[in-house]
Design brief:
By secondary structure, this protein is α+β, with helices and mostly antiparallel strands. Helix content is 33%, strand content 10%. The protein has three helices and three strands. A three-stranded antiparallel beta sheet has the order 1-3-2, with helices on one face. The two termini are 22 Å apart.
């Protein structure tokens, strides 16, 4: 899994990802960003900008072995995707 995350980072992310929290949520709401590693707490801000935003959530992978995969759960530990 770590190799896959490195590949994603190296090949599919911005070279200068420095944006503010506000800019990141605005970009997701406007469709300029596809994935945002935030929690569900960001939903109200995203909905203020785009009430029709099609949001989904996924866990961050910890292993390639499905039997060993664990979900870290809580109120704000989910990957936000739009």
């Amino acid at each position: 899994v770590s190799d896959q995350l490195v590949e994603i980072y190296q090949n599919y992310t911005q070279k200068n990802p420095a944006v503010t929290y506000q800019q990141a949520t605005q970009d997701l709401a406007a469709g300029k960003a596809a994935i945002l590693p935030l929690g569900t707490y960001a939903i109200p801000q995203i909905r203020l900008i785009n009430s029709d935003a099609n949001l989904r959530f996924a866990q961050m992978p910890a292993t390639d072995n499905a039997e060993e995969q664990q979900l870290t759960a809580g109120d704000d530990v989910i990957l936000t995707m739009g």
